[in-house]
Amino acid sequence: MMCCERPAGRLCRQISSTAVLSLWVAASASGQTTGTLVGTLRTSTGEVVANAVVTATIGGQARGARTDAEGEFLFEALARGLNTLTTDQAPLVLEPDTPIDIVAGITIRRDLTLVSPDRVRGGWQAERMKEGNPGLSASVFEARAVDGGPVPLVRLVERAPGISVAREGGIGHPTTLRVRGAQASTRFYVTDGLPLDDLTHRLHLGAPGETDVVEVVRGAPASARGTDLTGVAQLVRRSVDETSPVLTVDAEGGDLGWRRLGVSTAGRRGDYDWSLGARNLEADNEQPNSQYSQTAVAGTLGIRKGDISGQVTFRGETSELGLPGPTLLLPADLDAREDRTQWLTGAVLRLHRGPTNKHELRLVASQTNRRSLNPLDSGPIGLQSAAEVALRVETPDFASADGLRNDTQVARLTYEYTHVLDEFHYVTFGGTIEGESGRFGQSHAFDQQRLNYALFGEDRIQVFDNLRVTAGGRFVKNGPFDFVAQPRGSLTYELGRGFTAHGSGGFGIGTPTLEQRFGATFERRGTEDLLQATSLIFDGGVGGSLWGGRVGVDLTAFRHEYDDLIVLGDVDLPGLTANEAFRQLTLAQREQLDLDVVAGLRGPLTAVATDVRTGYVNVPFSRAYGAEATVSVSPIPQVEIEAVYSYTDSLVTTGVGLTRPGQALPEVPQHQGTVTGDLHLGRLSAGATMRFVGTRAAGIDFITRLLGLSVLESYTRWDARGLVQVSDGVAVSVAGENLTDEVYQEVLGYPALGRLVRAGLHVSF
Question: How many domains is the chain built from?
C-alpha cells in the first residue's frame, strides 16, 4: 500500500496525477472501492491536538476518527471520492478546508491545522476565480446575522476592508458601492441592504431565505457588464434537506413606517429540493415624497439524479419609490416617483463525470423596467450661483406625464468545465455569451442592443505545503469595444507560526453599461461615446493568528491604476453671459452690478438652465493606493470583536471637465473603519457596530456645483442588533440603525436616515 507524504518544504504532489489515475483505474479493476487517510492535527502555532474528533463526510455519510497523543488520526476503508473534513473543536475550523479526493487502494496523508474562523473570513487564499469575479481576495461572513433582518446586508458588506457604500437618502434610493477607491458598480438599489434590481441573477440565483454565506470579493473588476455586483458580493446558497423548515414566517415593524412581512418554504424529498418565498416591504423614509413599497416573489427547484444535477430559479418584483430631490438644498418635487418591475428566470445544469470532472451550464434571462414619472409642473426652481454673486439660475420643473424609461433585457449563457487532476491541482475553463438590449428616454422599443463574449480559464496548484498559486484570466469583447485580455493571479505562502504572506494582481475592465451610454432620467443622461475603463491592481500583505487562534491580524497594502474611469461629471453650468441684459452691459456696468447685488441695492440677474442633467465622462488617468488593517479577537468562544481600518489616497492625475488634476476621486473617503462586537450566549445573539467615514470629495451634479459645494463631512454612526431564539421554531429580533441619530450625508444634498429601530418575530414550522 502506498502513502503520499507531504512533509513541510517538499513538493507536495509525490504521486503525480497520472499515477493517481492509474492507481484509481487499477483499484477499480480489482474491485477496491475504499482508501486510507492519515494525518496530524495541529494548532496554528504548531502544537499537536490530542483527543479531538475529525469527521470525513461523503454523500451524506459521515465517519469520525479520534486523534491520539501525537495528534495523529487514521481513517481506514474510507469511501473513494471527495470527502469533506470537519472537527469538533468549534469555534476553530480546519485549514486547508478543501475536500480531499480519496483514491481506492492507496493511503493519502493530509495534515490539518486548527485556525480561527476570523482568519478564514479574511479569505486571503488563492481561491478559485469564479466566472465573472476576480477571486483575488475576499471577506466571508456567516449570513445568520442577516436572516430575519437583524443586520442589513449592506452593513456586512461595509465591514470588509476598503469598501464604502453611499446611498442617496433612505430605503430604495440609488446606491453606489466603492471598492478600494473605484466605483465597483453603477448605481443600484437596496432594500434593507438587499439589491432590488436583478437580485437573483447577481447574487448566485438565491431565493429569499436561502442565504448561508456572504462573500465580498475585492480586486480587479472582471465582470462582463459594469452593472454586475458579481465579484463584489455574492450569496452562497445553503443545502436543503429533510430537516429544513416547511414554512417560515417573518414579520417586522418599526420607526419610519417600517413594515415587512416575508413567507418562505423549503424542503427536500428524494431527488428533488425546492424553496419558495415572498416578501412585502413598506417604508416612509422621513423625507418628503420618499415613501417606498416593494413586493417580490422568488423560488427554486432542484434535482439530483446520479451524476446529473440541475436547478431552475425564478423571481418577480414590483416596487414604487418617491423621488424627493436633494431635500437639503431645495424643496422636493412631491408628485415625482419611480416605478420599477423586474423578472428573472435561470437554470443551472451540472454533469459530474466521476470525482475529477464537472461540466456546468448556466442560463439566465431577465428584464428590469424603471420609469421616472413627473406628471405635474411644480414651477421653476431658483438657485443663487456661488461663483457669480450677480447670477441667479432658474431651472424649470421637467414635467412629463409619460415619464422617462430605463428598461433593460439580458440573456446570458455560460459553460464551465472543471478538472481535478488531484487534491492539489485543478484547472477550470469556459465561456460566456450574453445579449443585452434597452429602451431609454421616451422610446417604446428595445432599440439599443449589444452582444458580449468572454472566454475564461484558471489553473490552481498547491506547489509546496506552504505555497498555493492561482493563475488565470479572461478574454472578452463587449459590444462595440475591442477585445481585451484580463490576466490575474494570486498566491499564499505559509510563513510558519500561524502567519501567511499573500499577494494578488490583475487587469480589469469596466464596460460602460447601456444605461450609462443611452439612459435618461430627470437627473442624469447617458453619453454614447464613453470609452471602456481599465484598471491595473496589485496588493500584498501578511496575515495570521496568535494565541491558539484567539487573535487574528492582517495588514495589506494595495495600489490601483485607472484609465478612463467612468464617473458622473459632465455638467453645463450657465453663467451671467447667458442673460441677454448682462451681455449688453459695459465692463464698468458689470462691475457696478456686482457691487449693487452685494450691497442689496438690486437683485441678481436670472439665467435659465433648460437641461440640468448630469452626464457621464471618462477620467483619463487616476489612481488609488493605501493600506488595510484588520484585527479580530475572540477571548472566549462566545465573544468576537473585529476592527477594520482602511486608508486610501486617491488622485486624479489627468482630469476632464469639472474633474480636475490634483483632486481626489469623488466620494472616496481617505479614512474609514469599523469596530464590531458580537456575543453568542446560548439562545441569545447580540452585537453592535461603530462605523467612521472620513471627509471626502463630493460627487458632481448640477445643483452642488452651482452652489459651490464640494466636500462631504465625516460622520460616525452606531448600529446594534439582537436575536433571541425563544424555541426551536420561534425567534425574536430587534435592530437599531444610527442609534445616536447622527445627521450626515452619504451623497451631498441627500440626508441619510435618522434613528431606525425595528423589531421582528420569526416563526418556523
Answer: 3
